[in-house]
Design goal:
mainly alpha; 228 residues; 70% helix; binds fe (ii) ion; 2% strand; 8 helices
């Protein structure tokens, strides 16, 4: 399902780029490649509980990042890109609502299973679907891409902590009772996670500040650009 939503985002971006006279076909090809590479294994082990926890998190992350990209596009005067990103953000929001409702139901019907699945997924950490992207040239492509996303505020370590906290509240993790000892341990772990991630956030911010100031991307013709 995530794959489908990524394909729909890919298709919307692709149409936008195709229609824009300002970009060349190379970028269009990249857009298709990029989103195809997004479809990586999120370590959900073919387990629907893990899958729905993963998608709840990931859909909210893509809603946030597309919304922020839309704001940047508007600010820099590209109204069409802002509209496309805004539409995708609204779609991602709907996907998020659907998946979080499914997990909400899982917590109601099988609180032990849902609690263990949520904790399991958080221990594995949620990687953004594009973390293995590769353009055939830059071995550190996602690191460079992620640096820009963090510095421009498109998607940051703070967003990760916010999403985690949001889901813990949304599924009323702290108030669930009558669960097994193992699930209680998972519940404690989940409750302790948002403040721990916030502490790591400071470390992540410092790392981002120290990162390279310039870099290049094949899809903008390998020109040296500021990694803002
Ligand atoms: Fe989606």
């Amino acid at each position: 399902m995530t794959a489908l939503s990524s394909v729909s985002s890919s298709s919307a971006f692709s149409s936008f780029l195709w229609c824009s006279l300002k970009v060349m076909s190379l970028i269009h090809v990249f857009a298709i490649r990029f989103f195809s590479l997004c479809l990586q294994d999120p370590e959900t082990e073919n387990n629907p509980y893990l899958g729905f926890v993963y998608t709840s998190f990931q859909e909210r992350a893509t809603f946030i990042s597309h919304g922020n990209t839309a704001r940047h596009a508007k600010h820099f005067g590209d109204g069409k890109l802002a509209t496309v990103c805004g539409l995708i953000a609204a779609d991602e929001r709907r996907h998020e609502n659907a998946y979080t409702k499914i997990v909400e139901k899982l917590f109601e019907l099988d609180p032990d299973g849902a609690m263990l699945a949520f904790a399991d997924m958080m221990r594995k950490k949620i990687s953004m679907p594009a973390h293995l992207m590769y353009d055939g040239q830059n071995e550190h492509l996602f690191d460079d891409f992620s640096l820009v996303a963090q510095r421009t505020g498109v998607y940051t370590a703070r967003d990760y902590a916010d999403i985690m906290e949001h889901l813990v509240d949304k599924w009323n993790v702290a108030s669930i009772q009558g669960i097994s000892g193992e699930a209680q341990n998972a519940q404690e772990y989940l409750g302790s996670l948002p403040p721990r991630i916030r502490r790591l956030e400071e470390h992540a911010q410092a790392k981002v500040k120290k990162g390279p100031k310039t870099g290049s991307f094949s899809w903008i013709f390998n020109r040296e650009v500021a990694l803002l």
